[in-house]
Specification:
Blueprint (H helix, E strand, L loop, with lengths): L1 E3 L5 H11 L19 H9 L3 E7 L2 E11 L2 E9 L8 H12 L4 E6 L3 H8 L4 E2 L2 H11 L4 H5 L1 E5 L1 H6 L4
Parallel strand pairs: 4-5
Antiparallel strand pairs: 1-2, 2-3, 3-4, 5-7, 6-7
Length: 168
């Protein structure tokens, strides 16, 4: 079952993000990786800044989460993670399909440049990686992240965004 997260889900979301982020060890540059990957305070700031999480329940508990954040004329997919024990079961795909279906405007998603499996996941669901010149403009416009993270990330866009911006 997919549902919108509630205030009482904060601890579960925090646990899922940090458990799912284990996959990024050795991928995220060491100067950007820390333990925990996301603190409770950082998670709270993201929610206060407009990220709404949607969760996939399995056996009565949240097994995966994916956030969305409206920014100007687009919606960003933020913090997409599945518990390690539930990975490779289609949970991320179902969450993404749900968010695509419920979002009218264009969608953008950022991920780490060296996270090839994440890039392939989004490409497999119709997203296109933006060329570097376009990426630099888009990431600075829509994300509030440190310069070092900008340098080590990529942005992928859905078909709606690509149709509005044919040059990528």
């Amino acid at each position: 079952m997919i549902r919108r997260s509630e205030e009482g889900d904060l601890e579960a979301i925090w646990a899922i993000v940090n458990d799912g982020a284990i996959a990024y060890k050795g991928i995220i540059p060491s100067d950007r990786r820390h333990e925990p990957y996301m603190t409770r305070e950082e998670l709270r700031r993201e929610i206060d800044d407009g990220v709404t999480f949607w969760g996939f329940e399995a056996d009565g508990e949240l097994a995966g989460v994916m956030g969305i954040q409206p920014v100007e004329d687009v919606t960003l997919i933020r913090h997409a993670y599945v518990r390690t024990a539930h990975q490779k079961q289609g949970i991320g795909a179902r969450l993404l399909a749900h968010l695509i279906e419920m979002t009218e405007g264009p969608l953008l998603v950022g991920t780490w440049r060296d996270a090839s499996w994440a890039i392939h996941f989004y490409e497999g669901h119709g997203f296109t990686m933006l060329p570097d010149d376009v990426y630099q403009i888009v990431i600075r416009r829509y994300w509030k992240i440190p310069l070092r993270q900008i340098e080590t990330s990529v942005v992928l866009a859905d078909r709606k965004w690509m149709n509005l911006n044919p040059s990528g």
